[in-house]
Structure formats: structure tokens, C-alpha cells
Amino acid sequence: FPLGFGAGGVWMGLSLGLGLASVLLYWRFWHRQVPHLSGLALARGADGD
């Protein structure tokens, strides 16, 4: 069913996009609010830009 598949793909794309955006926004907020954790993240190997 092409229409259903297309709608599912769009919904999946939106969900993934929103999820990624929210994670990035949360990371920026957290990074600013709790600066000392940036050292912890870097120690873990995360790229804290």
C-alpha cells in the first residue's frame, strides 16, 4: 500500500528529526546549566562542542 508506506515513512522521519532536535536542545541546555559535567562528558569521549 504505497500511501500508507509513504505516510509511515514521513511519520518516522518526523519522529526521528524531532527526537534528534530535542536531544540536541537538551544537551545544549544541560551543557550550559551544568558546566562541570562537560569535563565528565569529554572524559567519556563525547564531543562537547
Q: What order do the SSEs take from the amino end to the carboxyl end, as H and E?
A: HH
What's the rounded overall pLDDT mean? 74
Distance between the termini: 43 Å
Rg over alpha carbons: 17 Å
SSE class? mainly alpha
Q: What count of helical segments does DSSP give?
A: 2
Fraction in helix: over 70%
Q: How many beta-strand runs? A: 0
| Main beta sheet | none
In the predicted model, the low-confidence regions spanning at least 5 consecutive residues are none
* Molecular shape: elongated
Please report which band the strand proportion falls in: under 5%, 5-15%, 15-25%, 25-35%, 35-45% or over 45%: under 5%
Q: Strands, helices and their partners?
A:
Elements lengths: L1 H32 L2 H9 L5
Protein name: MATE family efflux transporter
Keywords: Membrane, Transmembrane, Transmembrane helix
Describe the 3D structure.
- The chain is mainly α and 49 residues long.
- The chain has a domain at 23-49.
- It has helices at 2-33, 36-44.
- The chain starts with a helix and ends in a 5-residue tail after the last helix.
- Keywords: Membrane, Transmembrane, Transmembrane helix.
- The chain crosses the membrane at residues 6-27.
